[in-house]
Amino acid sequence: MIEPKVILDIFIILGVIWTAGCALVVARSGRAIPLEQLEGAEARLRMGLLGGLGAGAIVLFFLTLHWLPYANTRRAELGSPAVTVAAMGMQWTWILSRHQVPADVPVEFTVTTRDVNHDFAIYDANGRLLTQVQAMPGYTNRLVYAFHVPGTYTVRCLEYCGLGHHMMTAPLTVTARPK
Amino acid sequence: MTVAPGPSGFVWEWEWELPLLASLVVSEVAYVACWFRGGLAPQHAHLAWKHLAAFTAGLVIIVIALASPIGANDERLLSMHMVAHDLLIWVAAPLLVMGGVPLLGDTIRLPRYLRRALELLTSPIVALLVSTSLLWVWHAPAAFDRALASESVHVVEHLCFLIGYLLYWWPLVVQPEAIGRLRGHLARAVYLVVGMMQSALLSALIMFHGTVLYTTYLHVPGATLDSALADQRLAGALMWYPGAVIFALAAALAIRENRTSPLAGSTVSTRQRDHEKAAAARTDPVQ
Amino acid sequence: MASAFAVPPSPPAITPLLAPDRANGAALRAALAYVVGGLGTFLLLGLLGLLMRLDQGGLIVIPAAWFYRIMTLHGAGMVATILLAALGGLAAAVSATTHLNARVLWIALILQLTGTSFVILTTLVGGFGAGWTVLYPLPGHGDIWPLSAAIAMYVGYLFLALGLLVYCLHMLYALARAHGGLTNVLALRYLFSFGRDTRRTLPRPPELIAAVISIDGIAAAAAGIVYLIPMFAHAAGVTSVDALFAKNAVLLFGHTMANLSIYVTAGLVYAALPSFTGRPWRTTWAVVCAWDLIIILMLANYSHHLYADFAQPLGLQLLGELGSYAVALPSFIVTVVGALTQIYRSGIRWTIAPTLLLLGIWGWVLGGIGAVLDATIPVNQVMHNTMWVPAHFHTYYLLGAVAFAWGYLFYMVRELTADRNPRMLRVAAWMYGIGGAGFIFMLFVAGGNSVPRRYAVHLPQWQVYARIAVPFVILLALGLAWFSWDLGTRFLAAWRGTQSAASEP
């Protein structure tokens, strides 16, 4: 799955490139020339960007279809869930039907809420967010995920839900599959 | 003369009090008399039916506020009391000002010192300060409960509200070019926004207060702590929301492109007149 | 001629802010009230953000109930005040060539200020703390605030929506009247003929942009009302509400409200930058195409807020993603590239106003990079509702829309006082830029480390991010204080600059 820190690195790299581009334009903002001389280059740049960014967007869009977090896509990718965990969010605690799941099997979390919107988010022991799904009143959302590293994970609520939002956590243990 | 309250505790009778009625009738008669006097003289052609209608409507609103079941219930329900006050300060007062101010200009001859005093009182800053202070002072629990306990104090309370807000609405109705008046969109906007926000703050403080502010309402037969608190929240809401609507409406009417408010008369101040006379004297050396 | 399209006949001159004979003086005064009122209140409610960072850094302790009230007020306040400032600048820019009724502008302002006062009172006095997004059913489920506080918040939003509606309707009316119909304001004939139909005079870019955002503003206000009606009904116990419908409605409202400010202030760049570069910014076919597209694209991608709500129909999710990618294109390719072309080899003197406009361009794209990353559904899976979200919108706002707004205000003062802005202010711009950049960078870093958003209390390992941000926020605040001081001393002169000899309202 996608690592948040990688995204941060991508952001920093793109940010630096963009900043360098701006700095270049500013550095060359003196020694005036008439706008007419730039119009051709500007038009070409626009066309190039439209083609490049447009194509990139379409490619990226189709790529993302393979990694949708929705239950159908994940089931297709990981296989039929072997274990189901029912998760009920309520102000301000999580009630899980089980706190232990095996590693290396697809687990399906059926997530709902008794009162307001919550967000069922699973963090690993290093504080990295792995996956999440919103808990909506009147709906049961299904999140399919496979854990590969045994250990203690934390479920946190990630949708603001009132006074105890920051205290709404639950432990989740992933046990290694017996050989 | 009230009959037994209905199941909700609300009383459905009107309370006619002679002093109130008498003063309203006298006011209307005096106004109409002045209006006719003003209407007959050709130089006062600015007085129109709409002024008469506004003033009369203002008096009718006072009747509704104080004599109707709204007023009759002001000692048993804070929310009704609020509605009565709302009608006085936000409906009756502006209507009276819209009808009365044009009249005051030329028909009534006032001594100079009285006119100067009136100009000072109705200047925007003073009017804002006076109306705000009277509103806040009378909503202090001690004062409010006192007014509920004594009829004469209650009359004083209502007079304070009415006079305070007659002053408040005054600068929005008179001609802006008068000295010290609300000239320009910014001044009028600031005046309205400040007026609105101070009463909104008061309403919010009342509405969100955790305990019953005016303990008289706890001693009304059939009242419980919960019902009194719910009544207080409703009262705060009835002061807050309609207030916002009234001020928005006032903004729509009072923020005008042209100089003259259509309902104003020629209430040019005495200082303005003196200025003009002096200027005329300077430019015309023959006089 | 490199362009494939016909040369547009739009007026090429750089339009001054003051119309001949100061005919737009009244509208400019209203605009100044919007901008100064908006940015002034922004400063106050922005300080609440500093309090939040101090609390999340563990440097002060705010009780959770108060933290969430402050958070609610800060969120609503930022959106409302920046929008006010933006709308004011836009009115000023448009008024230079289109007659706007100052009275209507003032009424819209008073309605929005009324709405803002409701929000302030219900959070600070009433205890309301459900977040500015007032997501159903939380407002009615507050253990610590009464239902009446939620209702007051809704009423505040109603006034804000009404004020926005009045402004947008008047803007569309004024523009349509000046150009002979809405199709001419949007240059639709010119657009669909690929630039060949040039019979009608093209609108100036600020006029075109004003029409575009007015249409979307009406949509935002309508979405707000569509959300609020069932909210009121539910509060009265009349009906129950479907959570998915509610989330769609409130996010369409909130998303559009937030985006509106950014696009409005981008329009201000078109209005002000030419004065500094000496190059007219003409309404080309690209400009018309980009901004007409934005009408739809601004609305189409709202569903990117619902990726984690798995019950949302897949079609809408994918529309959200594609729309998010798509909307970046016209903004970057036309506005940003256009601004950089304006600047490149222009001989521009880097005084405070163009510096801030450039800062805004830089920040807007930076925020856009963060946004496009988060709008990618698999990425969103691990970044939704982490600090990445406030990171990207603070960048859009603080280093985008707000920078544009302050830049435009300095431009207005320069035009109205016929006086150059002091050179020392560039230092203040650097303080603002560096302070802002450090602040938002720490938000991105926190997001990259999966720190959740909207937490009143941060775990010790998360507090370091907020602590590092605090000195940057203070630097930012000092820069803003310097701006305010300078503008405060020149405001009266600018105000008088709008008045002709015969004093008007």
Secondary structure layout:
The complex is a heterotrimer of chains A (179), B (287) and C (505).
Chain A: H1 4-27, H2 36-64, H3 71-78, E1 83-90, E2 93-96, E3 100-102, E4 106-113, E5 118-123, E6 129-135, E7 141-146, E8 151-157, E9 169-175
Chain B: H1 18-40, H2 49-67, H3 69-72, H4 78-106, H5 112-121, H6 124-139, H7 141-149, H8 151-173, H9 184-207, H10 225-254, H11 270-283
Chain C: H1 25-56, H2 64-95, H3 102-124, H4 147-179, H5 182-185, H6 188-192, H7 205-235, H8 243-277, H9 285-300, H10 314-343, H11 352-374, H12 377-380, H13 388-417, H14 425-448, H15 460-497
What is the CATH first-level class name of chain C? Answer: Mainly Alpha
Q: What composes the largest sheet of chain A?
A: 5 strands, mixed
Cα distance spanning the termini of chain A: 25 Å
Overall shape of chain A: it is elongated
Can you give the mean pLDDT of chain A?
94
Using the coordinates shown, work out and report the CATH topology of the largest domain in chain A.
Answer: Immunoglobulin-like
- In total, how many beta strands of chain A? 9
The CATH architecture term of the largest domain in chain A is: Sandwich
The CATH superfamily of the largest domain in chain A is identified as: Cupredoxins -  blue copper proteins
Count all strands of chain C and give the number.
0
Structure description:
The complex is a heterotrimer of chains A (about 180), B (about 290) and C (about 500). Chain A is of the alpha+beta class. Chain A is built from three helices and nine strands; from the N terminus they run αααβββββββββ. The two termini of chain A are about 25 Å apart. In chain A, strands 3-9-8-5-6 form a five-stranded mixed sheet, with no helix packed on it. A four-stranded mixed sheet of chain A has the order 2-1-4-7. Chain B is mainly alpha-helical. Chain B has one domain (about 20-255). Helices cover about 70% and strands about 0% of the residues of chain B. Chain B has helices at about 20-40, 50-65, 70, 80-105, 110-120, 125-140, 140-150, 150-175, 185-205, 225-255, 270-285. The longest helix of chain B has 30 residues, at about 225-255. By secondary structure, chain C is an all-alpha fold. Chain C has one domain: Cytochrome C Oxidase, Chain A, CATH 1.20.210. The chains are: A alpha+beta (about 180), B mainly alpha (about 290), C mainly alpha (about 500). Chains in contact: A-C, B-C.
